[in-house]
Amino acid sequence: MKSPLLLFLFSLVLSACANAPGQVAAPSALAITPNFPTYISEFVKEYTNYFEGEMRLTNTPGAAIVIVKDSQIVFIQGYGPRIVGGQDSIDAHTVFRIGSLSKGFAGVLTGIMVQDKLLDWDDPVQKYCPDFSLRDRKHAARVRLWHLLSHTTGLPYHAFTNLIEKDFSIPRIVNDYFPKAPLSGKEGEFYAYQNVALCVIEDVILQKTGKTYSELLAEKIFVPAGMNHASCNFESIQSEQNKTLPHFATGIGNWRANAISPLYYNAIAAGGVNASIADMGEWLKLLLGHKPNIIADSTLERVFRPVVKTDKERRIFPHWLRRDAASYALGWRVLDHDGDTILYHGGYVNGYKSEIALNRRDGIGICVLFNAHTPLSSACIPAFFERWNSGKK
């Protein structure tokens, strides 16, 4: 068996060869917005130099970045080809799947419904879905809307996610399997990450408004926010000309494009949103409080308020955060880093990887979309805030 050091050096050689001149994942266009303070330009330049270097080192096939400061996009960029070996480059309007970043939309959309006095966070789920049941019927009657979005229904970790991946509908899973599910803890207190349970909010919204979750998402967020390429169904991304395909590793430094899967479009609230990096820039503006015509800042504060500690889950950014530094709010992770509150979520679906994070006090946010599950995805957010905080000192 070769030593780990030799294997690592060998992988670097292969990566360097793969990124020979003419094959480097180059940016699609000049992207730093002019007329910003010098410290912003220097920060963006330092971070993007880091990012481009790491793309080469990890041989990441393609990515897109947007950085928002206050109400403005200060940097937006696509890197690499939409399909490895192809001629078309990723640009600001190239569509990706964003995976579990979709959960943040579920929290915000529900917040808008509460803001409009159509729902209340403390409404029992059974008020809208009378057939919602669990093995313990009294427990089921106590489950509130905020329990769905904070992964605190009491159900065990990833309950029935395997059935989403078998293309079962959410109503079928909830009706046929939830009544048989064992419970692992008290609602509102026990945290266990969910996909199916969170998606019950889709039926709540349908029963209350008569409109599907996807219709309300477009009506209340995508259209008014100017997210012109965002969607939440398989047909939309399939028909999109400017999209990137997911890529899978076929060896050290090698990637192969694969087809887009229809899976998880049966669980839109958990993982079914498609978007470009330009769309995600508009989303960051909303999250930073600069689209008050859509959502009030007080509503955002409620969505982002920590509900439960997640220290019993596998650690988030283990080399950057303490185990007790992470909580879950309503569709969002809340990270405590040296006194800063960072709102964060990561996503993975069908070979796509995605990251979003923002510091509302500083008015700074970033989203990075990848067309492969690259090691860079787990490093790009800590690297961003380390450089941002260093520049503030």
Any idea of the CATH topology of the domain at 93-251 and 258-293? Beta-lactamase
Strand residue content = 15-25%
Q: What is the CA–CA distance across the termini?
A: 47 Å
Q: SSE string, helix = H, strand = E?
A: HHEEEHHHHHHHHEEHEHHEEEEEEH
Structural class: alpha+beta
The order of strands across the largest sheet is: 2-1-12-11-10-9-8-7
Shape: globular
Radius of gyration computed on alpha carbons: 21 Å
- Helix share of residues? 25-40%
CATH architecture of the domain at 93-251 and 258-293: 3-Layer(aba) Sandwich
CATH superfamily of the domain at 93-251 and 258-293: DD-peptidase/beta-lactamase superfamily
Count of DSSP-assigned helices: 14
Give structural notes.
The protein has 393 residues and is an alpha+beta fold. It has a domain of 195 residues: Beta-lactamase (3-Layer(aba) Sandwich). Helices cover 36% and strands 17% of the residues. The strands form three sheets. Strands 2-1-12-11-10-9-8-7 form an eight-stranded antiparallel β-sheet, sandwiched between helices. Strands 3-6 form a two-stranded antiparallel sheet. A two-stranded antiparallel ribbon has the order 4-5. Strand 11 and strand 12 form a beta hairpin. The termini are far apart. The N terminus is likely disordered.
Main features:
single chain, 393 residues, alpha+beta, Beta-lactamase, eight-stranded antiparallel β-sheet, two-stranded antiparallel sheet, 14 helices, 12 strands, globular, disordered N terminus
